[in-house]
Amino acid sequence: MIRIINHDQILDKILGFIDSTFGTPAPEDVIFLEIGDVERYDQLHINKAICPTLGQLKKSARSWLPSLATEIVVYSDQARPDLAQMAAKILSDQGYGNIYLYLAGEEDWLASGLWTNSSRVPVDGFSEKVPQ
């Protein structure tokens, strides 16, 4: 099931309490997927987010997102919300049941001053990239 989620709902429902001054890391059982430009992702992204392509989601999501119950927040930049919507549909079609589509995206997150990162995030045993 795909649910549209806003900033406050992310904080309340998925991430729980956040210290707005310092922020806290995302829980291990919540996966953030940034869909879009890898160069932009390399510069700045939500802490612990990974950046697969739509092709990688279709081909190998089950290998690095093994549990269909995983809570997945999918977002993109506001210029291309269609990419996040397509990714959410791909995951839903594969049987994932806890997909949260964050349409306000990265811009909303950054404007709130919450935690970010500027390096690639390894995915369970894979080096610096989501498997091809």
Quick structural overview:
This protein has 132 residues and is α/β, with parallel strands linked by helices.
Describe the protein's architecture and organization.
With 132 residues, the chain is of the alpha/beta class. 34% of the residues lie in helices and 16% in strands. The chain has one domain (2-117): Rhodanese-like domain (Oxidized Rhodanese, domain 1). It has helices spanning 7-14, 38-43, 54-64, 81-93, 105-111, and strands at residues 2-4, 30-34, 45-46, 71-75, 98-101, 116-117. The protein is globular. The model is unreliable at 17-22 and 122-132 (pLDDT under 50).
Descriptive terms for the model:
Oxidized Rhodanese, domain 1; alpha/beta; 6 strands; 132 residues; 4-stranded parallel sheet; two-stranded antiparallel sheet
